[in-house]
Amino acid sequence: MRKSAAAAAAVVAAGAAFAAAALWYRRSSRRWRRAELIMRELKEPCETSVERLWAVADAMADEMRAGIASEGRTSLRMIADPSISLPTGCEEGLFYGLQFGPASVRMIRLLLGGNDARVVEKEISEVPVPPKLMVGTSEELYNFIAAELVKFISTGNANMGPHDGMPGEIGVTFSFPVVQDLESDYFSVEWTIGFSIKEMEGRDAVAAMNKALEKHGVEMRISLLANDTVGILAGGRYCCKETVAAVMLGMKTNAAYTEPFNGENPHNKHRDTIINMELGNFKSPNLPITEFDTDLDAASANPGEQIFAKLVCGVYLGDIVRRVLLKMAEETALFGDTIPSKLRIPFVLKIPDMAAMHQDMSEDLMVVGEKLDQILGIPNTTLRMRKLVFEVCEIVTRRGAYLAAAGILGILKKIGKDSADEKVAVAVEGNIYEHYRLFREYLHNGVEVMLRERVATNVVIQHFNDVSRIGAALLSASNSHNELGYSYADAVKRRVPSETFNAGITN
């Protein structure tokens, strides 16, 4: 009797266990089917066929033409810098530059030796921008810059020649839109990226900066003001005479290029003109946009703006991945019955961590597992889960890189260099391009796929060492109004050129 009862109990227990296992299996299968459906909802709209990429490039070229014709009444600002000349490599003498970014001020001193020696010496000093100045007045900010310049000038390397009391000029680049009024020749800065500077109405930014320099006893004057992407273009042209455009691919995206002298260019009827596109704001129905991009845009501080940037910039790519994983957690319980709280934090997944997951070469994707645990609070993941996250990173990155490639070719098409037989170069800067290997490889692959092998060999996408750091000083050199020149040719001939920078020069 007891044996029969025990046997019956065992059968019941086994049946319950089997039923539980079957229930778990059905639930797990439903979760994975739903997760795979979400993957399709991401993957299909992100499709970047050659036809679609050329549709994006064509749309960008059209927007560029419209922007030039309407002076900014399109998604692309197309801000002209008609008074700026790019360096030729012949520049000689001592020049200063200042690069103002969202987080720091970088001051540069260059000793240039002309065609034979190029960059002979360079000194760079970087100081953080105090947070309180991000919401202050332009006078407070410019006084801070002038005070730092005093320190930098007074501590110059004696080998680079005299500094004390030497009048000269400084080229300045900003990581913000810089607009020149062609009638008054005034320059104004449009403060973005977390800055809310109270600028005096109608005040020329160059005059205001020069006043601050004079107040602090700096015997130098601002010779020009430009966007930092124009500085990259200057550095690219200095390194390679075939450089026709520059693209920033980092926490922001932008592009500058040389608009050929022709009938389409109303800004300058005598020579090529530099155009700062404000590329990040490009928008087109041809862009491959998903529900996750739409949600990110709606929740941003600037909905409806910077659409292209939100598809390719490092600051956004990680958050697109996070949003995909959050939807999976909410609708499939793939990462457990409780949604990890960190998955709800916007921008918690930074681009270096996303890149580390995407570039995980280990067989069991252990780096992916570690990042999910440490960054997103998702522990004890299975290999299948890690492969799914890897694929999400792959889709988002490939789309972003291919769109960046389409943007570059849109620029080249506008200026008639997309099918040219001669070599053309595009200088590319930014941490996502420089440090995210797979993004960089996909970008190059996108250019090759779009242009086909014959033409692609003539288009060089290249990162030049240091150009973003010294572009402001190179612009100062190529636009110097100083008739004395302050040539240090004799000193130049006695020095060995700076190998770090000059290694990238192909003139």
From TrEMBL:
Keywords: ATP-binding, Glycolysis, Kinase, Nucleotide-binding, Transferase. It catalyses: D-fructose + ATP = D-fructose 6-phosphate + ADP + H(+). One of its GO terms (molecular function) is ATP binding. It comes from the Eukaryota. Pathway: Carbohydrate degradation; Carbohydrate metabolism; hexose metabolism. GO terms for biological process: glycolytic process; hexose metabolic process; intracellular glucose homeostasis. Its EC number is 2.7.1.-. GO terms for cellular component: cytosol; mitochondrion. The keyword Transferase applies. Residues 39-238 form the Hexokinase N-terminal domain. Residues 245-477 form the Hexokinase C-terminal domain. Belongs to the hexokinase family. PANTHER family: HEXOKINASE, HEXOKINASE-LIKE 2 PROTEIN-RELATED. This is Phosphotransferase. The gene is LOC109712513.
